[in-house]
Design a protein that fits this description.
127 residues; alpha+beta; Ribosomal Protein L30, Chain: A; 2 domains; 7 helices
Length: 127
């Protein structure tokens, strides 16, 4: 079961912002709920309480490639493994300084992706 959940999280992490918004709309319609309700209640419920809470540690990271380095082919292979992109898309991403390889992934997944890309010769940043 945990493997299925991790697979689902990995798949959802690959969605673009527009795709994620569409998914939210579809789930709201399917389940008859609103994702905005808890947010609105939190805002109305207590801005003072929110100010008293400690600052939370960042839990979602973007893996950004700064430079593919001298072994671009190896970096492209790793990008394809991490994202399931096609060869052309992965090549374009590797050649784009500041390109997001992964968006809004957990700390462990981001560090693992960074390690793999750096081992392949790329220069990577977590944001």
């Amino acid at each position: 079961m945990a493997a299925n959940l991790e697979s689902l999280v990995a798949s959802l992490s690959e969605l673009s912002v527009l795709e994620a918004a569409e998914l939210v709309k579809m789930l709201e319609e399917k389940w008859g709920v609103s994702a905005a309700a808890p947010v609105a209640m939190m805002a109305a419920g207590g801005a003072a309480a929110a100010a008293a809470e400690p600052v939370e540690e960042k839990t979602e990271f973007d893996v950004i490639i700064k430079d593919a380095g001298p072994k671009k082919i190896e970096v492209i292979k790793v990008i394809r493994q991490l994202t399931n992109l096609g060869l052309g898309e992965a090549k374009t991403l590797a050649e784009t300084a500041g390109g997001k390889v992964l968006s809004a992934v957990g700390k462990d997944a981001a560090q693992d992706a960074k390690k793999k890309l750096e081992e392949a010769g790329g220069v990577v940043e977590l944001a």
